[in-house]
Model the fold of this input.
Amino acid sequence: MKDLFIDTLRKVWALRAGRAGIVILTLAFLSAAFLPLITQSPIVQANIEEGATRPSTHHVLGTDQLNRDILARIVWGGRTSLTVAFLSVLLSVTLGAMVGLVAGYHGGWLDALLMRLVDGALSIPRLFILLLLLALQQDIGLTMFILVLGTTGWFGVSRIVRGEALRLRHASYVQAAEALGARSHRVIFRHLFPNAMGPLLVAATLGVGDVILLEAGLSFLGLGIMPPTPSWGGMIHESREIMFTGWWTNVFPLLSIVITVLAVNLVGEALRDVLDPMNA
Amino acid sequence: MIRWLLIRTAQALATLAAALVILFFLMRLVPGDPVTAFIGDRAMSQADVQRIRDRYCLDCSLPHQFSQFIGRAFRGDLGTSIQHQRPVTQLMAERLPATLLLGGSTLFLNFTLGLALGVWQAVRKGRTVDRLLTAVSLVGYAVPSFWLGLILAWMFAVRLHWFPSSGITSIQLSSEAGPIETALDIGRHLVLPVVTLSVVSIAAMMRYQRNAMIEVLRLDYIRTARAKGLAESTVVIRHAWRNALFPILTLFGLWLPILATGSVFVESVFGWSGLGLLATNAIGGRDYPVLMGSAILVSTLIVLGGLITDIGYMILDPQVRHR
Amino acid sequence: MPRSRSRIAVASCALLLTSTVLLPAQRQTNDHGVVIIATGADAPAPVPTVATFGTNWEVANLLFLRLAEMGPTLTSVGDRGFIPALARAWNRRDSLTLVFELDPRALWHDGRPVTAADVIFTFARSQEIPDLASALRRVKSVSAEGDHRVIFRFVRFYPEQLYDATHQMLIMPQHLLKDIPLDSLPTSAFAQKPVGNGPFRWVRRVPGQLIELAAFDRFFLGRPKIDRVYFRVASDPDARLNLLLAGEADVAQSLSLPAEDRVRQDSNLVVTAVPSGGITYALFNQKANGDRGKPHPILSDPVVRRALILALDRPQMARSVYGGHTSVPDGPVPQMFAWVQAPGERIVPSDTARARAMLASAGWLDHDRDGILDKNGIPFELSVNTPNRTPQRPMLAQQMQARLLPLGIKLNVRLMEYEVSQTMRDSGQFDIDMASANLDPTPSGWDWSWSCANVAKKRQNVGSYCNPEIDSLLLKAQSSRDPVVHYRRILALIRSDAPAIFLSSPANVIGVNKRYASHPFRPEMLWLSLRHWSVTPGQQLPRDRVTSTP
Done:
C-alpha cells in the first residue's frame, strides 16, 4: 500500500502538470503550517478608525474592515480552509465512492435501497440538517465539523460513481474477473474503482472549491469556525460590503481559493493519467 | 421493462413520501419559532402572539398537525404562509415561473455549451485551448456566486447600463405590452443572473464531460473507427460521445432540482424573486407551510431526477437492464 | 405596540432639522415626475388593519389618510401641534369630548365622498385588532352628527387624546368594506386593488416586482406634484443599492456605511440622514447562562458591568461601523426621541485604567498569570451571541473582543443564525447578546425591555435586569403632564445600573436622486411627505414624462 502510494506520487511528479500542482499545494500547506509562527497575529486591530487600508509597505496586502492585516489572515486562514477542505472532501469522496460502487456493482435490492436513501437524503435541505446539529450542540470542534461536512457531502458523488459502476459492470475485464471467481470486493477494488477514478477526481477537485466556500456560509450560521479565527471563505463573506471600496479585502482571499482549486485540479489530472488502467 | 418501470416508480413515490414525512417532523426540531420570527423586533402582546399561534394550530399536537396537513394537501391546499399571511400555493405559483426561467436557462446553457466545451477540451486535450478553458472554468467555479453577481451587476448595470441591475421586468413595461415586447424585456433582465449562475456551475459539466470523453476516446473501437478513415467529427459525435454520456445523465438527475430551487444568492443579488429566495427565507423564518410546499416540489424533482437517470442509463446501455 | 403606530410624546428640536414644515399645497403645478422607491419587501395587501409594518404599511400610508397628521414638531400632547388632513378642523366640547369637522371635499378614489360613517366604521374595525384596540383603549365611543361631524368621547382626560384619535387610524371606506369580514380582508379583492382617500391611488402590483401608484387628480388638499410612485422590490440590500446607483431607482433607505460611501461618490445622488428608532446594544445577562435561578457569576455585579462599558471607546466603535450619522447614548435612546436626554448631556468617556481598577476592586485579578482575569478560580470569559443578520453586529462584537482582551477579558464571539440566537436569548442562554431593536418613538415603551414586570418574558426583558424604581417611574410618567423628568430619572438609573453596553443609535441613512427640487422625509413614516416632492424643471429624466393614466 505504501509502495503503491510512493510509486503513484513518483509518477505524478514525472508529469509537468502534476509537478506544478504538487509544488503549489506543498507550498500552500507549508505556509499554512509554519508561516503563522512568524507573521503578525490575524486578530490585531491596529487602528480601528482607519478600517480597510490599501496594500502598503506596512501591510503588503492591505487591511480588512477591522484594520487587520490581510496577509496574516490569509496565512492563518489557510490552516482552517485547507484542513477543512481536504479532510472533508477526502471523507465525502471516499464515502460516495464506496456507496456508489457497491450499489452499482451489486444492483438489485441493495442498489435500490442505497440509492433511494440517497434520494431521500438529497431531499432534505442540508441547511436544515446543519441547523438541527446547531440545536443539539453549539460548540462543535474542528474534527466534528469536518465529519459533518464529509458525511453530508457525498450523496451526489455516490450517484455519479454508481453510474460509472453500472456502465463498467458489463465491461469484458469485469466479466472475465468474475468468471475466474474473483470475490466481489476484489472486483470492486481492483477493477471498478480504478476505472471510476476519473469522475471521482473531478468530484474531489470541485469539492475542494465547494467546501471552502461552504465553510464560510456555515460559520455565518454559527457552525464551525468562529471569529476572530480567519478562513478564506469567511474573509470574502465578511468583506462583502466593501468589495468595491476595498477590493483588496476580498480579491486576495479569492485568489488563494482559486490557486488552490487549480493546483488540486493539476494533481487530479495527473493522477487520473497515472492511474488510468489503460496506461498501465 | 414495464414491470421494472412500475417498481422503480413505486420506489420513487415511497422515497418521496418518506422524505417529506421525515422533513415535516424534522423541521419542528430546529430551534426557532415561526411566530416570533414573523414578529421580529416589533413589540406584540402575548395575547396577539397566542392569536397567531392558534390560527396556525402551532400548539396542536404534531400528529394532529400532520394529519391536517395531509388532509389539506390532497385537496391541493398547502396551508397559509405565516410570514406572508397568504396561501402557499398562491405564493409559489407567483414565483415558480421566474425560477423555472432562471433554472431552465442555466440548465440549458450547461447542457449545451457546457457539454460542447467539455467535448472540445477532450478532443484537444493538453493543448492551449484545453488548458485555457480549464483555468477559466475553474476560476469561475471557485468564485462565490454572490461575488460574481455583484461584480457583473456593477460592470454591466451600474457602469455600462447594458442590462438592468435587478428585477424581472422593468417598470416602464405596461401591463398591455405585447408578448414580444414582454419577452424582450424579461430577456434583458435574465442575462446577468443566467450568466452568473452558469459561470459558477458550468465548470462541473465541462470537467465531467471532458473526463468521460477522454476515457472513451482512447478506447480500441475509437482507434478502429479512426483507422477506418472516418471523419474525426463523425468519430467524436457518433461513436464516442454516446458512450461518454453516463456521468452527464447522472448530473442531469442531480441538477434537475435547480428548476425549483434556482440559486438563492443569484436570486437575491439580482432581485429575481423566485422560489429559491422564498424557500430560504422560509427556513430563516421557520415558515413551516412554505417550507413543506417547496420541499414537495424540490423532493419531487430530486426523485424524478433519479428516475430519469436510471431510464437514461438503460436507453444508453441496454445491458444495464438485463440483470 | 407596533412601532409604526408611533406615539411621540414631546416636541423635539432635533426633529425640526429633518422634517420639513408641511405647507398645504394648493397650487396645482405641471411638474410631472416619478419617484421609484427601492424597497425590501412586496406589499400584497396594503390595507390598514391588515398592514401594520413593512412595505404594506408604507404603501397604505400613501393610499389612506388620517383625520389629522402630526405637525413638524411631532408633538403628541395637546390639540395644537397637528395639521388638518381628513378633518379640516376640530374643537372641544369638554375635557372628554373632541369634535372633528370632516373636510367635505375629501373623496374616495372611486369618487364617493368621505363621511362620518367611514370614521365610525374604522373605529369599530380597529376594536377587532388586539394591538389597535389596546392603543385605542381610552377612547370610549365614536359617533356622528350628520355626514361630516365626528365626535370622539374619552374615558378620562389625558394630554394625548387628539393623538390617539388621529394617529392610530387610517380611515377606511365603509361602503366597500362593510361586507368583507376581517379574516378574509387580506386575500380579498379589495386588498388586491385598494381604494383609499389619500394623495395617491392604486394602479397595479406585479407580484414580487413592483407596486405602482398614481397621483389622485381630485385629491382635496392639492394634487401631488409627482405623477407616479413605484415601489421596486429587491430583498437584498446590495440589489437595492445597485438599483439606486444604476439610476433605476430614485430613493433607497437604510444604507450601510459602505453603501453610503458609494452613494456619495455618485454625482447624481445625495445622502440624507433621518432620525430612526433603532438602537444597538450588548445586553448583559444578569442571571447565569442557561439558568435563570442563579445570578450570573460575573455579570451580576454592577461594578463589573460599569467597568466593561468604561473599557470601550464606544463613539469610536460606532463611527467605524455606522459612520458619522450615529449617536451614542448612555441608555436605550434612539435618535427619534433624543430629546429625552438632558440638553448637552455627555456620555461617560472611556477610561481603560479606571476600568482595570474597578475590576480589581471587584476582585477580578490575574491570579494564575494566564493573561485572563479570574476570581475564586472562575476565569473572566464570556460568550457573545451575535446574530448574523446584519454585518454591523458581528463587527461590533469583534471590536469588543479585540479591545477587552488586553484587559484580561476573554470574549468568545458566537455568530448565529438569527432565529437560533433569538431562541437562546429568550431562554436566557447567553452571557452577552448583541441586540438591536426598533423602538416606539416614545420612552413609554421602555417597560418592554427594562422593567421588572417583564423580566424573563420572551423577546422582552431577557437579561433579567430589575430595578423596581424604574417600574414606578414609568407608571408616573404615563399619567404626568410633564413626563420628561421621570424619563431622565430612569436614564440616570440605567446609567448607574449598566444593564447593557449601549453601542449606537444610528440614523436612517437615505440616498436620493438629485433631480428633486425638494424631498422632505418624515421620521415617523418617511413617505408621508411624498406628495410635496417635485422634480426640478429641466432636470426630468425620460421616465418622468410618463403621462398616460389608465
Summary: The interface with chain A takes residues 238, 256, 258-259, 261-262, 316-317, 319-320, 388, 391, 394-395, 397-399, 401-403, 412-417, 420-421 of chain C (CB under 8 Å). The first strand of chain C starts at residue 34 and ends at 39. The two ends of chain C are 39 Å apart (CA to CA).
